[in-house]
Amino acid sequence: MLVEKNNLSNLKLTQKISVPNGADVFIGQWFILDVEILASLPLPSDFEIKLDNLFGLEIDNSYSGSSVFNKDRTVFKDSFLLTVGNSDSIKSGDKLSYDIIVNDVPINVIYHAQDMDSSQMMLTADKKFIAAQDIENIIGVDNNHYIIFSEELKDKSGRSMKNTPIKIGTSMEDEIEVLTFSTNSVLPEIIKPTTVGSTKFITVHSDSSGNIKFRFYPTGNRAMLLKLISMVDSVAVEGETVYVISPRPTQSYKWLPKAIIPALINGILRKDGEEFEVKVPAFHYASPEDRIFFLTNLKDGIPDSNALISSYFLGSSSGGHYSYCLNYDKLPANKFLKIYYVIISEFANIAYSAALDVEYLES
Questions:
Q1: Which of 214, 245, 276 is the last residue of a domain?
Q2: Which end of the chain, N or C, is less surrounded by CB atoms within 10 Å?
């Protein structure tokens, strides 16, 4: 049964909005607002959602949105590009508002404007390394192979920003379209990318405590160096780099030579000061911009993020070796351990070393 537009008053409608009533927004930012209407019966084909009575916000009419029904026409979705007024017209603490008009009935929504503290913004990852996988868009409770990115949003007074939308891009603009992201929830949902003009991004939201968490799944067997960027208005803050890489080869002939520790005597390394020298034999086809990582463990064939000692740009060799200083305090005290190094290029090509057996004595 299709409801005629003039009979909508008899229809039970429920609305969901991506940036909820009472959310905090940054002065000057723009964001995508998704509005979803759920109906008890199929909606008419000319059903629409309007925004009206905007205060402190503007609709960008050049953004065409994405009006769509579900298969049985009981769900209608549309999206709008909203811009918060700049600091000339909006002050920290101001209330912003608009009405969602559905069936001529206004639903008032209020946001709170705040000044941004970009020094608090930076995405961090729960692990630095993850193995590339030859799968496509597989998420859910049975797939634990992902990285969790986190960020805390605060205003200039140190107050947490509640339910705030943030755009996330990548250092390579087109990359976002082939990557897989989801919410960090019990039943994760895919976060689809959006394109506005030449800007491609996903939108994530802080929770009621100002915390952002979402997942990245490596798919398509793509090795890469992934650097995500938090974007608010004209401010773009790079997060830490994560490495999607191939596992260590099982054939030992494919490994690089062991590291050399001059202070290692008969397999024993005794603490002497704060740092010790490590040398790595020089090899062909290396770039000074490659990264070298020293660590004490591999987990499932790739570097264990929790076992990282230190990392450097590879730099230039001297006398047939690269030379670095590592901190004793990064080693587990009074233990037998293995020291590996891993070299990763900017194109995510990777080379693993053989393991150097060490007995480390702190005292």
A1: 245
A2: N
